[in-house]
């Protein structure tokens, strides 16, 4: 819940200018502004269609008596090509469940958009040693039954709840090795990508991208300012080239 219309337009315009004529080999940039800014940002991104525009949420029904909700056809009409689904804040504060995330994934795919499914365990699950089982249950519950073609349009973002937000603790490579090995075994080469998010910043991005199974980064506050996002893109492209 950041950025006014003017701020969002300025961010998008700066991003387009910075990427103009640049080889994006190894990169797939995307930004996910608030609903209010989708169309203005989409208008700016016409000049740089390589940047995917996403919506932070969408309902599973195409229309109806769902006051306050926004549908997949509506976000697509506003310019989105990707829908973020199941962020931990949505699960904690707005009662998102494995069932509803599955419905939303199918709604996004039904309308030709990419689904970005967020999964992640709270601290008490991690402390009990159940991280891998927990996140696989979230992923399997939302993605079970998809065809190979449908799964190829799903991006999975693993965001441990204990690692995200203002008070999150950055995860270590050792803590991420097991979950990403499991995700790679189940979804590697099948999903469009498996990303890591959680206290990602310019100081740890390069190391995170060396972890087996991590195919990209899902960044929050470190990318709120354009300069930060551009620096992270440089780090990610450097990692892709070295790989």
From TrEMBL:
Which Gene Ontology cellular component terms are annotated? cytosol
Indicate the quaternary assembly.
Homodimer.
- Top-tier EC class: isomerase
Subcellular location per UniProt equals:
Cytoplasm
Could you name the domain of life of the organism this protein comes from? Bacteria
The similarity annotation says: Belongs to the triosephosphate isomerase family.
> A GO molecular-function term, please?
triose-phosphate isomerase activity
Q: Which UniProt keywords apply?
A: Cytoplasm, Gluconeogenesis, Glycolysis, Isomerase
Protein's UniProt name: Triosephosphate isomerase
State the EC number(s).
Answer: 5.3.1.1
Catalytic reaction annotation: D-glyceraldehyde 3-phosphate = dihydroxyacetone phosphate
Q: Example GO biological process term?
A: glycolytic process
Pathway it works in: Carbohydrate degradation; glycolysis; D-glyceraldehyde 3-phosphate from glycerone phosphate: step 1/1; Carbohydrate biosynthesis; gluconeogenesis
Which Pfam families does the annotation name?
Answer: TIM
InterPro entries in the cross-refs: Aldolase_TIM, TIM_sf, Triosephosphate_isomerase
